[in-house]
Amino acid sequence: MTLRIAMWSGPRNLSTAMMRSFGSRADTVVSDEPFYGCYLKATGDPQPLAEEVIASMDCDWSSVARSMAGPAPGDPPIWYQKHMTHHMVGPVAHDDLPGVRHAFLIRDPARVVASYAAKRVKVRPEHLGSEKQVEFFEREADRLGRAPPVIDSADVLRDPAALLERLCFALGIPWDSAMLSWAPGPRSTDGIWGSHWYDAVNRSSGFSAPDESPIALGAGEQAVADACRPFYERLAKHRLML
């Protein structure tokens, strides 16, 4: 039976590198942001390649949810699903995916905003998905009776082997050192939006050193980071520690 892992992240959060990491395991298949088309169709958010994304994907919320909880492609031992919490604006939530183990990937919102703003004209707090991420986390914690796994991208970059080994233990899967490296370039499992967003990860072959340089944000960008910080800090209290 396939073990399904849903990693709930915001944008510019190391999420694609994490997908590469899990995709490097011989026992794992990956899915890239399966609700993205639903989000774009529902909101009309003018993202790059939006029309092409909508045309390329199943954009029915319930149908996508059934697929994510249904048979895995190729019936692998593990199915890693990369999800964006800010995409979840429709009638489906994380607990509409039965039999899935949920984990949460976070990043300091100032660094998210700095990275995200470089890729789009304007960023709003809802683009980071922080509030929805906390909502899903708290609902999952209530269901489990304990905190589900939370990892901070900065901790992953500081010591990938140690942090990912802890994550694997928390998810109930064996640690595999293959998760530390991958071949550069795109993947057939990438969404078509990868041609716009994945340039850095496509040049990579593993996790880079953390960027700990000072962050300079404009007033509007700082306001976005400040609005999202309480949600980040709520989850950061539960993150797996090195």
What would you say this structure looks like, in words?
The protein has 242 residues and is an alpha/beta fold. Helix content is 44%, strand content 12%. The chain has helices at 15-23, 36-43, 50-56, 61-69, 109-117, 125-128, 130-144, 153-158, 160-171, 194-197, 199-203, 219-236, and strands spanning 3-9, 28-32, 78-84, 100-106, 150-152. The chain has a five-stranded parallel β-sheet with strand order 2-3-1-4-5, sandwiched between helices. Helix 5 (109-117) packs across helix 12 (219-236). The longest helix is centred in the C-terminal third of the chain and has 18 residues, at 219-236. The two termini are 31 Å apart. The model has no long low-confidence stretch (mean pLDDT 95).
Biggest pleated sheet: 5 strands, parallel
> How many beta-strand elements?
5
Give the strand line-up of the largest sheet: 2-3-1-4-5
How far do the termini sit from each other?
31 Å
Instruction: Round the Cα radius of gyration to an integer and report it.
Output: 17 Å
Strand content: 5-15%
Backbone shape? globular
How do the SSEs run, as a string of H and E? Answer: EHEHHHEEHHHEHHHHH
Mean pLDDT reading: 95
Number of separate helices: 12
Q: What helical percentage do the residues reach?
A: 40-55%
Q: What structural class results from the helix and strand content?
A: alpha/beta
What low-confidence regions span 5 or more consecutive residues with pLDDT below 50? none
